[in-house]
Design brief:
Two copies of one chain form a homodimer.
Chain A (H helix, E strand, L loop, with lengths): L1 E6 L3 H12 L1 H8 L3 E7 L13 E2 L2 H5 L4 E6 L7 H10 L3 E4 L2 H17 L4 E2 L11 H7 L5 E7 L2 H13 L3 H11 L7 H4 L2 H15 L9 E2 L7 H9 L2 E12 L2 E12 L11 E8 L3 E8 L3 H17 L23 E9 L3 H8 L3 E3 L6 E5 L3 E2 H8 L7 E5 L2
Parallel strand pairs in A: 1-2, 1-4, 2-3, 4-5, 5-6, 8-10, 10-17
Antiparallel strand pairs in A: 7-9, 7-11, 9-10, 11-12, 13-15, 13-16, 13-17, 14-15
Helix pairs in contact in A: 1-12, 2-12, 4-5, 5-10, 7-8
Chain lengths: 401, 401
């Protein structure tokens, strides 16, 4: 029998307890032994709940108990999760976490610590919820050198953009509706400004390229400026507007960003709608592959955490190799990254646009008083320099085709 | 350094050698040591090729060499692959194979043999080509009890059906074109009759449910009877016709089949087109997930084989647990499996259809002289009994929505 402890009995933490209970028999078979929840750490009490008698309020009860071999961290946030996780690893307990902030900020350090102790620090649930992506990147795509990862990594914003697309509604309206339904937080900043996706692409990029990517270095743009008019043009282009986290390796340099992009029908991410996530990975020999599923939610996320618990239980005393060193990966300067840009200006600036951008692809969605076009491929820097000539820019969205 | 040998220097075997060469540095890092191809077994010689000096014609050279720790089998077919693989495992060499016939037929036995020797029998490339599916099923979805696997498992038939859909062409015409382009074999039976997909769903079902599924027990229907007229109706229904391998667990009974089905737009497999494969998996806590990518081809398939080689190298002396016992899984009687059926009859049988099937959903694609409808949910047996009343059935296709 393996004793585990769960730090934080919120949505995911209670989901972990529920999954371990629901599938206890098959999980015991796969972990080669039963998994027993010995403690649950939370500030609150949970009278009448299945963990009523397991709740403790002091992390040291867990850290000091040699019977606890695996710690599940589902508290979220960097502090005190970091101190608790580090304390557990230092005492030889493997840790499984769903906490993307923690992994993005301290992943490399905590992996190195786990390795030095021959235990494991696992974080499948930190990206893509229930979708297996961390373990496949780590253990399945080992024959390849990764060339690109582009993911729809945030279910809330994908839901909002999908609704704006299908209902022709504006951002604020759909956000309000999503908040009422509980799909978006009352303070939606982390989702709609792209901060959540930024941490996730930082984790995936670190894993894929083997070095620490600081999420603060990643250019991040949210979806608050996307309008229903933009959606009209996307339809005209047979495209969809999706906010993606993306990293690419070109000439030994890795670039990364989070931003809304126009995606064409031939892109496998085109069909990833509503609250679903999809993560496209391109390997130099494998070619295109995509992982799809529910990127959030109590049970999908708990499923990923429990899969990590099973793996940790199977590997007591053995570190599972992870290719993510503490060396910092210097990202390419985003100013030098190239895209085509979809641009909307006042109709009167049609000539100014031609002068600034040269030959462009016009896009007509019958919007009165407006002129829209797609530029040729150019760097962010070039685009900004040229765009100075246009005084009426209504929006500009990067184009992924 | 790990010495490996490759059995069969055809498309996949030569791809394995190429991938090991192309990515030798990153592969050595992930395998914790360089991988060296010591022998290549083939009947032919390959003068001027990179393996010119490594070719042997006698399997015993490889089996008797204690330096060879991993054998890659990319010959295809059951014999002599089975004897060679068994011989390698008996001598303590791990085996990585892309051979679906071998795995479907003897997987359970060879896994048990590998386990008894503390070595590994790995077969990621046998299903879905480069798509990671075997390892995720085995190691990532461990918190879940699998409820359904439905996959587009054969790229050739998906290409044919996609072309029939987009070009309004008939089966024979597209098949000929696919053969000319090398996408379909001159003898296309294994693909178009569903036999290839049948072996693959047998493998996935065995892994997901932990017991040996004999592929001979799986109802298998190909795509040779699908016409361009069927495609017109599919369009009318906003559906696509795809040949899938599918298995489901209901009330502790597992059913499985291979057949063309109508798939609706909300299904993630709807967007899996051309030569791509997609494998949808439903877990009882995870919900829906899908794995997407190139299901065949030299380098994608070799990528999966080499990932297995890396895993085997990392696990020298340790068996990676696989949940696939030699106990036979008794599949549910296919006659008792339920679907809705799309049916086309002569227009004059409209009343006979109503009499036989009761209330149906009519489908009108403006095909002269024809009446088409979708039945309510019923078993195969019920359908056959009712269909006896109709003398003009032009086609019937199962409906997955």
């Amino acid at each position: 029998m393996i004793n585990i402890s769960v730090l934080g009995y919120g949505t995911v933490g209670s989901g972990v307890v529920e999954v371990l209970d629901t599938n206890s028999e098959s999980i015991a078979k796969k972990a080669r032994q039963p998994i027993h929840v010995k403690y649950v750490l939370d500030k609150r009490e949970f009278p009448g709940s299945p963990v009523e008698d397991k709740v403790v309020h002091d992390i040291n009860v867990i850290l000091d108990d040699p019977e606890v071999q695996i710690v599940v961290e589902t508290m979220g946030g960097v502090h005190p999760a970091y101190e608790f996780v580090k304390g557990a690893l230092e005492r030889g307990k493997s840790v499984c976490t769903s906490n993307k902030e923690l992994v993005a900020k301290h992943g490399a350090e905590l992996l190195a610590l786990a390795k030095s102790k021959s235990i494991n620090f696992l974080f499948e649930a930190s990206v893509g919820g229930g979708i297996p992506i961390i373990r496949p990147l780590n253990q399945s795509l080992t024959a390849d050198e990764i060339e690109e990862i582009t993911g729809i990594l945030n279910g809330t914003t994908n839901y909002i953009l999908s609704k704006m697309d299908t209902e022709g509604a504006d951002f604020a309206e759909v956000l309000r509706e999503a908040q009422d339904k509980g799909y978006a937080e009352r303070n939606p900043e982390a989702d709609v400004e792209g901060y959540d996706a930024c941490r996730k692409i930082a984790i995936l990029t670190s894993l894929a390229f083997g070095k620490q990517v600081d999420y603060e270095d990643i250019y991040t743009e949210g979806i608050t400026k996307i309008t229903k008019t933009d959606m009209l043009y996307a339809k005209e282009l047979d495209a969809k507007i999706k906010i993606v986290g993306s990293s690419k390796r070109e000439d030994e340099k890795v670039s990364a960003f989070v931003a809304p992009v126009m995606i064409g029908r031939e892109n496998p991410l085109y069909s990833v709608n509503d609250v679903f996530n999809g993560i496209y990975v391109k390997g130099n020999v494998l070619g295109d592959t995509m992982f799809y599923g529910k990127g959030a939610g109590k049970l999908p996320t708990a499923s990923a955490v429990v899969a990590d618990v099973v793996d940790a239980a199977k590997h007591i005393g053995t570190n599972i190799m992870t290719n993510w060193s503490t060396h910092k990966l210097e990202l390419a300067d985003f100013e030098e990254v190239s895209h085509r840009f979809f641009v909307r200006v006042d109709e009167v600036e049609k000539e100014a646009a031609a002068e600034a951008f040269g030959q462009v692809e016009e896009v007509n969605a019958n919007v009165a008083g407006e002129y829209a076009f797609i530029t040729k491929l150019m760097t962010e820097k070039e685009f900004k320099e040229k765009a100075v000539a246009l005084s009426s820019m209504r929006n500009r969205i990067r184009v992924a085709f």
